[in-house]
Amino acid sequence: MKGDEAAAFFLAFAVVLGLARLFATAARKVGQPPVVGEIVAGILLGSTLLSTTWGPWGETAPLDGVRPLLGALAQVGLAMFMFVIGYEMDPSFFRDGGRTTLHVAAGSTLVPLVGGCLVALPFAAEHGPSGGAGFVLFTGVALSVTAFPVLARILADRRLNRTAVGRRTMAAAAVNDLVAWVLLAVVVACFGTAGQWRVALVPVYLLVLVCVVRPAMARLLRPRKAEEDRPARALLMVTTGLMASCAATEWLGVHFIFGAFAFGAVMPRAGLARLRAEVMARMEQAGTQVLLPVYFVVAGTGVDLAAFDASSLGLLLAALAVAVSTKMSGAYVGARTSGLHRDEALTISVLMNTRGLTEVVILTVGLQMGLIDEEFYSVLVVVAVLTTAMTGPLLRCVRNDRGTVTRPGRNAETAMTPVPPR
Q1: pTM of the full predicted structure?
Q2: What does the DSSP assignment read for 42-98?
Q3: How far apart are CA 308 and CA 297, in angstroms?
Q4: What's the CA gap between 239 and 245, in Å, rounded?
Q5: Is the separation of the CB atoms in 387 and 326 below 8 Å?
Q6: What is the pLDDT of residues 147-171, one digit of tens each?
Q7: pLDDT tens digit string along 261-307?
Q8: Fewer Cβ neighbours under 10 Å: the N or C end of the chain?
Q9: In sequence order, what DSSP letters do the residues of 124-181 get, joined into one string?
């Protein structure tokens, strides 16, 4: 890369980062999580400024040579993000709430999974490049996901993260996400385009992670005498292991995001609280704050809103209706059957409907693996944005400004305790 191509790359990178930050700030000002603005920025940039016809150099330096470089940066950012997600899957999330967690997670996963499969059946022949079964199952998984990191940000912004409803929702979302990633790995392994024989080695890979990598990382990261370069050395070791895990799963025929997620999930935690905070802070700064916005731009290049016609609009309305109704009803019924009051169950159902960037990641995997076509990908990306954007307004409808439910329940044990304003 030299000359005009280098200039085009650096300019495109600057535009991506600048507009992603601008849209994230704008989203926060209108009461939306910043990720909504970042996704919208990615879609708009992908279909306008980063289209094949854009560039102050005209035909002399097309952006075809820039896109692979932005894509490589995006992949690194996505790997770091998935590592953070896996690392944040703390076992305490699965213990909190017990029965409530399992009921809400089961309802919010199974109902939209079945609903997504059913709504996908009429469109399988037209939008499923790899065949009907893979398309149908993938759609069910994509519509069943809850965006755990986006949900955590929403709860923190609204000071709900320390309430009973916040803890229960986070626990259920953690279980929901874990199940969704496992199901996606199965679908990709069975219906993806990679060679199938290597998939048989996945159990060996997982065994090596648990029995070899986890103890080795615990020894390498164990606190020793004062070391000035300890955080930097730990970050280097973690990043090296992360990239190796991504390479392993990609070679096995499973998408590299599963390698990043699994590596984060098996990382040792005991006795490493301070180091964990330092490494995670640096990983988030480098990965999610700088490189991840690039991922949304690259993902946005596959969304062509100008190509939406009457059939696309019908598909969008059907997918949106099924996504919202099944997710919220499943979470609500799960919460009610666990003994929660209807108001707390309604709040949980609204929060569990958040999909955001997690669904965008899943959809990109499906597009890359040939499980869905570009039109269906575009439709479901819009669904992900809309379901995330509606979380704030719906939450305001069921809760008042002080952080309590509109109609408080009678059971003191299930009532939500408001968090004092900061």
Answers
A1: 0.74
A2: HHHHHHTTTSTT--TTGGGS-TTTTHHHHHHHHHHHHHHHHHHHHHT--HHHHHTTT
A3: 19
A4: 10
A5: no
A6: 877 787 777 777 776 787 888 888 8
A7: 889 888 887 766 666 667 777 777 777 677 877 777 677 666 766 66
A8: C
A9: HHHH-TT-HHHHHHHHHHHHH---HHHHHHHHHHTT-TTSHHHHHHHHHHHHHHHHHH
